[in-house]
């Protein structure tokens, strides 16, 4: 009996404490500014300088700063983050008066759609996820199509008939890269083998663990693979570095044209091509539409047809197989070849 | 009454407060130095933290965040109290939450029945997963540190295997998650404004009370702590060490199984690829910080929530994102070091006090035997205080 009383007292006290504290405390939402301060950009893990996915989004805001004169506030996700933290990041941006607020990466899918309902006058954007709210723009890309094209390039360039794919995290999005790449390779060179592996089964660490990617690439090279396509955000730098050490081996970049990334300059001669996701274009278009007072709405798909994804030609390493790439592009845009989204 | 006196004598209170005060002060100074080194104003940072952290929505956020942290710390602390280092809370709670979510998503019982079923499944799976390490330790002598770390990794792969579309999960955009638990089986919310507090707070409170009662007030708890301090002494007095190891691993795992419940039953309602990871490791830090004490760990969990809540705001104000992580590390180190320093100082002072008494008694030649009340009481105080200190330090070392 005594315990029960104590328990009840403890529960009531806690609840009461929370209630009283709440009653006299001001909510942080009440003290925000209302003026539009520019663009709020929330990066996924890896941050602005991942030379890949986040950096592609950053290029979009950089362009908007230059051409539209808007300011940008950037924030970055940490590892092992929870929904609560993502929601807080987005709502503090919206609260402070940033418009649009853009979440970079599918991790923001749920939180953007949730937070958007609390800020109906702000336009939200999310890269790689669908919109489920009126004021959310979902920007998705046909990564499988660009991956198909780099698969063609890999199949043409391999001498050992062994190529590999490294994914950051084994989730639906990265499986899209895998599916396209494998099909591209197989359609071009049925004899080629594709070794597929993922850095992590379920942890976002896969997108910022270059050391692990480096090790995995090392193993793949040792097994005779001579082209490695890495779709793993910042981790990709690790595998590119490892590939650059081996003569005759090629790395394929992802999301940004990694040949042109300052941080990867040392290894650029090993970067055959990159499957580029024009996140920058999507982000820029969204910012522009808000600036013009006609914010975009709903889901925007960026496929090969709209040049939302493409293959990088910097370095000129794939100039000799340009014909094959162009033909594959033609086949996909005309609908002759259907690129699967699942392996 | 004398117990009360001993516990609350001025000296004891001073000793109890010295370590946390020292730790907080040191952590404050060191954090300021680190912030200043990044070229920012540390005082403005603390102002931002206190101002933003005390907002009503921040309070709710902090409490909700602290619930799983507290449960995780309690799970770790059960091991600590008997000298077992359960690093596997992380894997235990994830496996537990995953299978609980699978069961919860498959059943459609009335909520009053289904919620306990989900919670029991989680506790059972958590206990089972931790029990593997316990059995391996008692039968094969494998260190639980090694096995629990490895089981974390296996847990990740196991979940990754089942969390696929053709197995136990459904696809939702880019996420895979288990089928949603029906709305009738969602845990209640405490209707505070502006946001509600998770009702699973009650689970944390109950676990806190049970932890305090079982470990501090029962024969079992006594045995457990006895094994923690000296296995040979405990087994000499008739305690089966093997049974205690397995039992405490099972208990630790069962509590670990609850760590995912606040998220599962109050927030996500399914286990997906975005389910929080790493809470088990946070629990280790919080158990250290809270000195394995049920209230200490609650304060530590709230402090952790506070730091995480305000850390984001610091980033917003242009401070480095990593500042909060650095602060968390500094605080844990400061607490561990401060308690050790205070323990040594107190020990030395008591030793010299006892030494002085003995030599005085030797000079008196046993005359003071009768009116020993004053110094005798102090003597007792002296004995009990360092021994509890030593015990605590021993479990956290």
Automatic annotation (TrEMBL), chain A:
It comes from the Bacteria. This is BMP family ABC transporter substrate-binding protein. It is a lipid-anchor. PANTHER family: ABC TRANSPORTER GUANOSINE-BINDING PROTEIN NUPN, TRANSCRIPTIONAL ACTIVATOR PROTEIN MED. Residues 1-23 form the signal peptide. InterPro entries: BMP_lipoprotein, Peripla_BP_I, PnrA-like. Residues 52-87 are annotated as: Disordered. Residues 42-341 form the ABC transporter substrate-binding protein PnrA-like domain. The keyword Transmembrane does not apply. It holds the Pfam family Bmp. It is found in: Cell membrane. Keywords: Cell membrane, Lipoprotein, Membrane, Signal. Belongs to the BMP lipoprotein family.
